[in-house]
Structures are given as C-alpha cells and as structure tokens.
Amino acid sequence: MHELDAIDRRILNVLQRHGRISNAELAERVHLSPSACHRRVQRLEQTGVIAGYVALLDPRRLGRPTTVFVEITLSGQTEDILDAFEREVALIPDVLECHLTAGSADYLLKLSVRDTEDFARIHRRYLARLPGVAQMHSSFSLRTVCQTTALPV
Q: Where does the secretion signal sit in this chain (predicted)?
C-alpha cells in the first residue's frame, strides 16, 4: 500500500471531483508548483492509487433511468460454480457492478435499465441463464438518495 501524505490526499480529493482539471489549476488548489504537482500525480498513477480516469454519464439522459439490484444465491459454493458464474456475469453489458457477498445472498448485482420491460428482457436473455443460480431476488430503486464515486482519503 502506498503511504499518502496530506498533499497526496488533497490532490486525490480534487481529482475525484474534477478529473479534467488542468495540472496548473490542480497545483494552485493544493498549493504546489506545477512541476511538483505533476510528479506527485504521476507517482499516484504509477503506484496504482489512481487506477484510471473516466467520464461519468447521466443514465437518465441515456435512457436508462432505472437502477435494479439483484441478489443471487447459487446452488453451491464450489470453486467451479463460483468461477463459472463470475465468468458469465462479467459478459452481461447491463451489469454495472457484481459483488461476492457474505449474507443472505452470494452475489449482489447492480444494473442500469430503461424500464421494467427492459429488465424482463435482460432477465430472460442473461440472468436466467447464468450457471449455478438457485435463487434470484430483484429490487427496483425508487430514487437515489445519495451517490458518489469519491472515496474518503
């Protein structure tokens, strides 16, 4: 694990919220020279603390206003069953996240869909065909109360 100092943390906080900020503006915000700031950002990238840069899209504007969470319980916990499930679920384009969980289900999926009909299509075409599935429970999000991609640093 990379040891972060206060300046690294300030850089990360700014970049998480303003990924397209120029190096000059970033340096000004964190009170560094542009060259020192650039070196620190490069080090954070090289050590993997900064894993990448993305554009965050608005699902509503893309016609995918509905978030669905799907809890999946598998028929067993053998490595073959887990591997087969994980391999196949990773191929489903509508799955935004898939988490192996401890609790009432084995996996929790997050999907972004157009509406209930779109989810029914995805369910029939992909989810119902996943290997090793014993049970599936779906929950539709009514409203997003809070959401962030920024990690506390």
A: none
